[in-house]
Design goal:
Elements lengths: L6 H9 L12 E6 L2 E14 L5 E8 L4 E5 L7 E2 L2 H14 L2 E2 L7 E9 L6 E10 L2 E5 L6 E4 L2 H16 L5 E3 L8 E3 L7 E2 L9
Antiparallel strand pairs: 1-2, 1-5, 2-3, 3-4, 6-12, 7-8, 7-11, 8-9, 9-10, 10-13, 12-13
Amino acid sequence: MEGQITLLEYEAQISYKEPARLLETGQVVFVVHKGDVERSVVLERNWACRDGGNDRGYCISKESGGYGVIYNSDMGQRVFTDKGQAKEISEKFLSEHAVIRASDIILHEVVAYTYKRNVDGRKMIAFYGDIGNGLLYMKDFMTYHHISKNCSKTIKEFTRGIEELKEYGVTVELIEYTPVSKNMYRCTSGDWVYAEAGYSYATG
């Protein structure tokens, strides 16, 4: 009859056990993304999910800002409670892919601009700097850190973004700035040659 469940469905319901909670609220974890390791903190919200409800998800607060989700099934794969283990996995990725390590990136003749975003008062920064070999390490106000060819087209596009903000009445200031470099992963598509780990085409 309509609304009734089968015997198999009933047996599945009574035999189901929620997945274990492997992480506690406030616990520090180290999340590996490509060759980067980010310290994060487990938040209160967690839930049974995936694979017929046999996995558990957790909201996390990232040290760099923002939030993310990790799962029980990530433990020992890309999520670790021990930083040393996370570093081992990230180092393996770095050694096997086309990556320029942050420690090897030295910027010269940095040009940087800043403005305060009205919606939240956040200080926004855009910059570029020469890293040699005909390349610029740069970041526009709303992009990932990336490496592009040092050519007039790249500079023109960067400058146009500054001028467009000014046309909308935004006060943009030229500043002295020392960027903190990030690991750069070789890009498989687009105009960027390398980009930071969060960019989907930066696979290394």
